[in-house]
Amino acid sequence: MSSFGAAANTNPNKSYEVNQPPGDSISSLCFSPKANFLIATSWDNQVRCWEIQKNGNVLNSTPKASISHDQPVLCSAWKDDGTTVFSGGCDKQVKMWPLTSGGQAMTVAMHDAPIKDLAWIPEMNLLATGSWDKTLKYWDTRQSNPVHTQQLPDRCYSISVKHPLMVVGTADRNLIVFNLQNPQAEYKRIVSPLKYQTRCVAAFPDQQGFLVGSIEGRVGVHHLDDAQQSKNFTFKCHRENNEIYSVNSLNFHPVHHTFATAGSDGAFNFWDKDSKQRLKAMQRCSQPIPCGTFNNDGSIYAYAVCYDWSKGAENHNPSTAKNYIYLHLPQESEVKGKPRAGATGRK
Questions:
Q1: E-assigned strands of 80-214?
Q2: Other CB atoms closer than 10 Å to residue 181's CB: what's the count?
Q3: Do 99 and 37 contact (CB within 8 A), yes or no?
Q4: Does a cis peptide bond (omega within 30 degrees of 0) precede residue 164?
Q5: Of 148, 152, 195, 217, which residue is most buried, by most CB within 10 angstroms?
Q6: Cα–Cα distance measured from residue 74 to residue 95, given in angstroms and rounded to the nearest whole number
Q7: Mean of the pLDDT values across residues 227-237?
Q8: For the purposes of burial, counting CB atoms within 10 Å of the CB of 17, is it exposed (0-12), middle (13-18) or buried (19 or more)?
Q9: What stretch of H or E contains 335?
Q10: Helix (H) or strand (E) holding 325
Q11: Is 123 helix (H, G, I), strand (E, B) or coil?
């Protein structure tokens, strides 16, 4: 595909470029809940941290620290106090990195297969880890054994928590919903409203439902309450003509509760599920966007631009491949919800 040519524009949205990006594709991004420290995990086995300085509309990035895993790292999360980072991946373990104190990273969780996603649950003081070994485990990081192991119907692909709601997306289009006030029982098991493989899930900020994104350029908006089922819908995105691209990332804005999608077409878009509108479509980058994240107040959206393996190994040349992390400053018009179209008397 010519649009993935090396000479094409990786930064058509004129975003700020993060200094010293990873040496291989970026698998996850997450901001500290307390400050503008950005974590990236990568297929080069590294977990890196940058400090992002924001002066008005000018951003600067300073590499601060990094740790290594033995194999590619797939996921990351911060502790709610902003002191500690968790990272997991193909070495089947989670490392806890006391970043702000400068301490050594230590292994706090283990699975029998790669760990695909994880979430820190401050209300329970536990770490949840989901693996391709078809289990979800809860960990008290002071103990070597999991507090609880939950069997999943298939390999874990994505986890999202807004306590007491936790949504786990697995292979075979399973979506398992947990009420964390009773975490040892499935609250609901739903077959994805999308026809193809789940890539990402995001729990609603009000805990009333979740978003699911799939490889077929589509997002499902699902409410948990049976009385709200009429509000469920799916919509197409990350498509161009007959080309259909994966939705790789779903992130709610922490203030306005609108959300961002990012996809293998190299675009990220902002949406309002309540008015069913796209608020802003950004220009397509020349490589896929595998992951994105908002900072704690929603004033920065970070996204990675790099190869995501969606077109197989034969389309990847490690010697020429470049990996970027960009920072976008969302305008209020891009992320603030709009009134429903129906409010003016027309649908």
A1: 85-89, 93-97, 106-110, 115-121, 126-131, 135-139, 148-151, 156-162, 165-170, 174-179, 186-191, 198-203, 209-214
A2: 10
A3: yes
A4: yes
A5: 217
A6: 12
A7: 97
A8: middle
A9: helix 332-335
A10: strand 324-328
A11: coil
Q: Between the CA of residue 266 and those of 132, 162, 258, 340, what are the distances in Å?
A: 27, 28, 20, 29
Q: Which amino acid is at 168?
A: V
Question: CB pairs under 8 A, 24+ apart, for 148-152?
Answer: 148/183, 148/184, 150/178, 150/183, 150/184, 152/176
Q: Could you tell me the CA-to-CA distances from 337 to 114, 208, 306 in Å, in that order?
A: 38, 18, 30
CA 297 to chain centre: 17
- Return the structure tokens found at 65: 């620290």
Q: Are residues 29 and 328 in contact, defined by beta-carbon separation less than 8 angstroms?
A: no
258-282 burial by CB neighbour count: b if 16+ within 10 A, else e?
bbbbbbbbbbbbbbbbeebeebeeb
Strand 209-214 relative to strand 218-223, pairing:
antiparallel
pLDDT at 347: 37
**Closest listed residue to residue 294, CA positions, set 249, 339, 263, 264:** 249
Residues contacting residue 234 through CB under 8 Å, at least 6 positions apart: 193, 194, 218, 219, 220, 221
Q: Is the pTM of this model over 0.90?
A: yes
- Residue pLDDT, tens place only, 11-33: 999 999 999 999 999 999 999 99
> In degrees rounded to 5, what are phi and psi of residue 214?
-130, 175
pLDDT per residue over 141-182, tens digit each? 999 999 999 999 999 999 999 999 999 999 999 999 999 999
In this structure, what DSSP letter does residue 339 have? Answer: -
